[in-house]
Structures are given as structure tokens and as C-alpha cells.
Design a protein that fits this description.
Layout (H helix, E strand, L loop, with lengths): L2 E7 L4 E7 L4 E5 L6 H13 L3 E6 L5 H4 L2 H8 L3 E3 L4 H5 L1 H8 L11 E2 L5 E4 L2 E7 L8 E5 L4 E5 L2 E2 L2 E2 L9 H12 L7 E4 L5 E2 H7 L5
Parallel strand pairs: 3-4, 4-5, 5-6, 10-13
Antiparallel strand pairs: 1-2, 2-3, 7-8, 8-9, 9-10, 11-12, 13-14
Length: about 210
């Protein structure tokens, strides 16, 4: 059974997620820690909970979701896994950080590209990958059917959706991704977004003004 731990980091109030199971193995998704205090908060939690990070994953590569990539990769000797279509977004990290005046240690390049239909294994747990472009060209979601949860990055929010005015964004494509890839899930699946509170598939199907 997966236990999800969340942290809100950096000036963009980005949600970083740790997914762990009973074995103690865990994956870190979208580490947004951007300073020593945030880095310490994350590592302290991992140490106190006796967790062993085995995967570094990005839902997409906008700057607020990758600020901690290098720190996590170096600290836990992990290699980055992401979708190939977000390589250009990853490469723009330094420029984006400079624009916003945020300290940024450049992310390592990925060593593995994740595609729809792939599976992430850690401990006794499995995450399925679905390709959900629209917010960025290479956005993906991680889904645990056993635990009825979705870590969705900036695709679907509580009564909102990801912005589509950045490079690689496409409004119609994002709506299609949500309707075809997420709204076909059971209504009791919990969605953990890249910003803001968790929500559910059922609630968003009934209440999201962008998808009515």
C-alpha cells in the first residue's frame, strides 16, 4: 500500500511528492526544493521515516518542478526519468530561473524516457504512466490503480486546469488529455496536483468549470 507525503516548496508553492510503501522504498516526484532549508526538510523526513529513494521522476519540467532535481540526484545517486517531449522545457530551466531570480542548480539530463504504458516499480508497488500533454508538451501522470491515486503535475487542479500559455502548451489538447486519460478513471480516485489541494476525479467531473 502506498503512503503519500507532500511538501509545498519554492516561491511558486509547488507540491513535491514522496510515494512510499511498506518496504521503505520510495519515489520522489517533482522535487521543487530550492534552498537549504527546503532541502533539509525533505531529507529529514526521508531519514526519520527510514525511507530509501529509488526513483527521481518528473511529471513535466517547468522550473518550479525541477529546482531540486540535481540535489536529489546527487544526494541519493538517482537518475532522472521523464518524458522525452519535455527535453526542451528542461533545457530552458536556467533561463526560466534567471527570469524569476531563483537559485537553480542545473538538472541532470534524463537517463530514461517514460512513455504511456510504461510502469514504475518500487517496493511492492506499481505506478502506471499516462501521457497527458497540453500544459507542457511532455506532461505525464503517475497512477496507482491499487491505491486509487493520481500524481498529476499541472494537468488537473481543484476546480481548475493547468495553464496553456507557456511554450508547448495547448488548451484543447489539455482538455482532451483530462477527458480521455483522467476522467475515464473511477470517480473515487484522488488527484494530487502540482499546486493546491488534492481533489477527486468525481468532484472535478461534476464541478470543474473548465470541463463542464
Amino acid at each position: 500500500m502506498i503512503t503519500l507525503h507532500s511538501f509545498t516548496f519554492n516561491p511558486f508553492q509547488e507540491n513535491t511528492y514522496i510515494l512510499a510503501d511498506e518496504t521503505g522504498e520510495c519515489v520522489i516526484i517533482d522535487p521543487g526544493c530550492c534552498n537549504a532549508q527546503e532541502q533539509s526538510k525533505l531529507t529529514k523526513h526521508l531519514t526519520e521515516q527510514k525511507l530509501k529513494p529509488v526513483k527521481l521522476l518528473n511529471t513535466h519540467c517547468h522550473i518550479d518542478h525541477i529546482l531540486g532535481n540535481k540535489f536529489i540526484a546527487d544526494t541519493y545517486q538517482l537518475e532522472l526519468e521523464m518524458h522525452q517531449k519535455d527535453l526542451q522545457t528542461l533545457a530552458a530551466g536556467k533561463v526560466s530561473a534567471d527570469i524569476f531570480g531563483i537559485p537553480y542548480e542545473e538538472s541532470p539530463a534524463p537517463t530514461k524516457f517514460l512513455e504511456e504504458g510504461d510502469k514504475i516499480h518500487f517496493g511492492n508497488s506499481t505506478l502506471d504512466i499516462v501521457f497527458t500533454p497540453g500544459h507542457s508538451a511532455g506532461s505525464i501522470c503517475f497512477i496507482s490503480h491499487a491505491d486509487k491515486l493520481v500524481v498529476g503535475g499541472d494537468v488537473l487542479f481543484y476546480q481548475s486546469i493547468g495553464r496553456t500559455d507557456l511554450p508547448g502548451g495547448n488548451h484543447q489538447q489539455l482538455l482532451e488529455s483530462i477527458r480521455i486519460k483522467l476522467f475515464t478513471l473511477p470517480i473515487d480516485f484522488t488527484v494530487y496536483p502540482g499546486h493546491g489541494p488534492a481533489t477527486s476525479i468525481g468532484f472535478e467531473k461534476e464541478n470543474n468549470p473548465f470541463l463542464s
